[in-house]
Each structure stands twice: as structure tokens, then as C-alpha cells.
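> forwarded from #structure-qc
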């Protein structure tokens, strides 16, 4: 038994959510959509996680470029 959350998922671009977990409450988290200019992957979620997404992709793709350089022609 599982529920589909497509229709009324609070995770929609522009929504502002309060996010509560065991250790913290975070108020007024705006949901944003970002995508990676290198590979096109898209992220939808609060800004700090979006920042991690962008940072992670930047690091990853730079790492790929580094590997290419090492393999060099
Ligand atoms: Zn990427």
C-alpha cells in the first residue's frame, strides 16, 4: 500500500515550507528548482539543499575534467 503524492506534494517550486525533523525546525524554506548546466540534472527542494546540489555537481564535473587532463593527449 502506497500513496501517490504527485497531486498535492508540498514540494512544488515557489512553495514555502516549514521543515521539521527530530533535531530541528526550519521555517519558511522556499522550494526552488535548479539544474546543472553541465549534465542537465534537475533538483527541486529547499535552497540549502539546492546549494549542495550545485556545489556537488560543480565539484564532480571539475573532477571529471581533471581526470581528462591527467589522461591527456
Ligand atoms: Zn551535473
Amino acid at each position: 500500500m502506497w500513496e501517490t503524492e504527485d497531486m498535492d506534494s508540498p514540494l512544488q517550486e515557489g512553495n514555502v515550507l516549514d521543515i521539521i525533523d527530530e533535531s530541528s525546525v526550519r521555517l519558511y524554506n522556499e522550494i526552488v528548482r535548479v539544474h546543472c548546466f553541465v549534465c542537465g540534472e534537475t533538483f527541486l527542494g529547499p535552497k540549502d539543499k539546492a546549494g549542495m546540489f550545485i556545489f556537488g555537481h560543480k565539484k564532480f564535473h571539475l573532477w571529471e575534467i581533471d581526470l581528462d587532463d591527467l589522461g591527456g593527449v
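QC bot note: Strands lie at 16-20, 25-35, 42-46. The chain has one helix and three strands.
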